[in-house]
Design goal:
By secondary structure, the protein is mainly α. The protein contains 9 helices and 3 strands.
Length: 172
């Protein structure tokens, strides 16, 4: 089976056609699993992604590109509202521990990937609130505080440990 243009263009390699089929067939838990397999913060990306996948959508040749970001946000929000939101599978524990310095989007994605691979991971934060630029620089209308809070809660449920007010010494 060939990769669709939208999936090839997605920087995170999400299987977009599979997600769209699962939503169309009324299989929200499976759609959430597909999204979680690729994205550490699906509800955030469902709001802030610049949608390169929609530029590669074959449907645009017929009428208009599929609203992939909107579907992704729908899947993420449906999963967030579930009594027990779906979390991605994890590999068995490796016994290795990793510290990620900072708690911005890149650090959170790294922590997510490390925990998925079976490593214990601590996110060392300068202050007491994780999220970095998502918390400080993104307008609340674009990313409501409760969405970020839910994503951070799910990362914690997944196994990411947050260490607030953790100072990191620098060498000079």
């Amino acid at each position: 089976d060939c990769l669709s243009p939208c999936a090839r263009i997605c920087p995170l390699g999400m299987n977009i056609p599979q997600m769209l089929r699962q939503v169309q067939q009324g299989r929200p838990t499976e759609a959430a699993a597909t999204v979680r397999a690729a994205l550490a913060l699906p509800a955030v990306l469902g709001r802030l992604c610049h949608r390169p996948c929609e530029n590669g959508c074959r449907r645009a040749a017929c009428d208009s590109a599929a609203a992939i970001q909107d579907v992704e946000r729908f899947v993420a929000d449906t999963n967030r509202a579930a009594p027990a939101p779906h979390l991605a599978p994890r590999r068995p524990a490796t016994g290795q521990r990793v510290a990620v310095v900072g708690s911005g989007p890149a650090a959170l994605a790294a922590a997510y990937a490390l925990v998925r691979e079976g490593h214990a991971c601590e996110v060392l934060m300068r202050g007491d609130g994780a999220g970095g630029s998502l918390r400080r620089e993104v307008e609340r209308g674009a990313l409501p505080a409760e969405v970020l809070a839910d994503e951070l809660r799910d990362l914690g449920r997944f196994g990411v440990e947050f260490k607030p007010n953790a100072g990191v010494a620098t060498l000079e």
